[in-house]
Amino acid sequence: MEETAFKIRLMNPDDFDAVVKIDQKVRTAPRPEYYQMKFEKLVQSKDNLPISLVAETENGTVAGFIMGELYIGQYGISQEKATLDTIVVDPDYQNKGVGEQLINEFIKHLKRLGVENINTLVDWNDYRLIHFFSANRFIPSRIINLVRHI
Ligand SMILES: CC(C)(COP(=O)(O)OP(=O)(O)OC[C@H]1O[C@@H](n2cnc3c(N)ncnc32)[C@H](O)[C@@H]1OP(=O)(O)O)[C@@H](O)C(=O)NCCC(=O)NCCS
Predict the structure, then answer these.
(1) How big is the chain by its Cα radius of gyration, in Å?
(2) Residue whose CA is at the smallest distance from ligand 1 atom 46
(3) Fold classified for 7-135
(4) Tens-place pLDDT, residues 125-149
(5) Measured from the CA of 136, which atom of ligand 1 is nearest?
């Protein structure tokens, strides 16, 4: 895989527009409300610690991002409850290792905080995404998500 000079840094409130724009490129419908809620948590979280990073090109363009949360219980950090909620790389920069770099840096941060497991949800039918997570050493957990259609 091509080695590139992407810089990984913590996400900040000024990244909002870039994040919404990149997300819009990979989805049919934009979801600014979802990111509004996530960015509010970036600045004012009480019972969870947002762990969100962006990948930047050499000239400062946001090429991708990863967002997750670390839930902090009454007794401090709960090792069971770190989640990877969203990872998106701008199609212009996909397949250059940005996704892998984001995951590796995300894990490094969480490891430093004592986390041992990171959970994420993937659509059973999304083979490409399952392949991506599998290549990044995510395995199926022993908890299954049940649904009742009503
Ligand atoms: C999944 C994704 C984050 C990977 O980012 P990336 O920078 O291209 O990843 P890397 O370069 O580190 O790895 C490339 C691998 O990702 C896989 N990949 C590439 N594009 C993909 C896509 N649109 N969807 C899923 N997986 C993809 C490729 O199969 C490739 O695997 P290979 O090396 O065996 O060929 C990126 O493709 C993306 O943003 N997809 C759309 C958004 C999405 O579905 N996000 C996850 C749910 S929140």
Answers:
(1) 16
(2) 87
(3) Aminopeptidase (3.40.630)
(4) 999 999 999 999 999 999 888 999 9
(5) 12
